[in-house]
Amino acid sequence: MRDDTADYRALFLGDVPLLDTRAPVEFGKGAFPGAVNLPLMNDSERQQVGLCYKQRGQDAAIALGHQLVSGAVKAGRIAAWADFARAHPDGYLYCFRGGLRSQITQAWLKDEAGVAYPRIIGGYKAMRGFLLETLERAVAECRLVVLGGMTGTGKTDVLRRLDHGLDLEAHAHHRGSSFGKHATAQPAQIDFENRLAIEILKKRAAGHASFVVEDESHCIGSCSVPVGLFQAMQRSPVVWLEDSLHNRVERILRDYVVELCAEFVRLHGAERGFELFAGRLRQSLDNIARRLGGERHARLRAVMDSALAEQGRSGAVAMHREWIEKLLVEYYDPMYGYQRQSKADRIGFVGELEDVVAYLRGAQQ
């Protein structure tokens, strides 16, 4: 059998298959990309064993665990682990601390399925600690450049063209504004941090010592930018991306109307998907009603409703351009203009998309 490992760096750099034996409730609070949850105990069993441990001690808790996970239940779980191990012979298993649960899983696999499978020493807790340290070291050791610009200038498009770009919104599964929700849910905060740390680890291993991030607020939807990274962003140099109002409107139309509608339709079908998309768009505008003011919100909402009605009838999206342009000019542009002014002393380059991409590529040399 391959040896047990504590080489967390190699595990994450190699996208090694991971068998997570923690209970589903633990897995749901935070996990690693691609890990498969095949628990030793389900949530109810884990709760019972935990209560027994508190009341009667470790030996009694272990005995109860063996009683709860026995017979057909035990056989089914061993079969699932064995299937995973055979499908992923280069993988590893782990529990929360690399202790009893992973050791039992490992022993049952070997003794009852004839499969020798290594575990990760220190388990989830140690791997999570390694990723948090990866984030902290990157903030301390790497140069950051913050990419700013008005809404719709294509900041995400720029990041996707840079080998050293970090797309925080992609990891948060949210576009970062009141209209930023996708059709599917955001990851848990821990999942967001883990994914970001793994990307940083891989980029640093590839030789990158500087990173470009978009100028985000502390919260991207329900995900919070790690405190150390956010603080570093507030003191880092800024590159400001510009584009015409026409182009910005077209990008907003693409991202927040065409693509978002397509997400809902893929998930729910044409009729129900469009209904949910329309509800999401209206709710997004309503979320900033107080900031817009009653009259302006009502005016924009009427234009949006007409555009949605036409889209529902014919599929045409052209009417959405009116409310998008008004929202940019009347709401977002003044807000971002103030932010630009507050960052003026940190702005080292201003340009349109191709010039900004070329500048940022050159700046990493």
Write up this protein:
The protein is α/β, with parallel strands linked by helices. It has two domains: 8-128, Oxidized Rhodanese, domain 1 (3-Layer(aba) Sandwich), CATH 3.40.250.10; 142-364, 3-Layer(aba) Sandwich (Rossmann fold). Helices cover 61% and strands 10% of the residues. It is built from 17 helices and ten strands. It has helices spanning 8-13, 24-29, 43-56, 58-68, 71-87, 100-113, 123-141, 155-160, 168-172, 189-205, 227-233, 245-268, 270-286, 289-292, 294-314, 320-342, 353-363, and strands at residues 18-20, 36-37, 92-94, 143-149, 165-166, 210-214, 219-220, 223-224, 238-241, 347-351. Strands 5-6-4-9-10 form a five-stranded parallel beta sheet, with helices on both faces. Strands 2-1-3 form a three-stranded parallel beta sheet, covered by helices on one side. α7 (123-141) crosses α10 (189-205).
Write the layout of secondary structure elements.
Blueprint: H1 8-13, E1 18-20, H2 24-29, E2 36-37, H3 43-56, H4 58-68, H5 71-87, E3 92-94, H6 100-113, H7 123-141, E4 143-149, H8 155-160, E5 165-166, H9 168-172, H10 189-205, E6 210-214, E7 219-220, E8 223-224, H11 227-233, E9 238-241, H12 245-268, H13 270-286, H14 289-292, H15 294-314, H16 320-342, E10 347-351, H17 353-363
Parallel strand pairs: 1-2, 1-3, 4-6, 4-9, 5-6, 9-10
Antiparallel strand pairs: 7-8
Helix pairs in contact: 3-4, 5-6, 7-10, 12-13, 12-16, 13-15, 15-16
GO biological process, one term: tRNA wobble uridine modification
Pfam family, one: AAA_SelU
Active site: 95 (s-selanylcysteine intermediate)
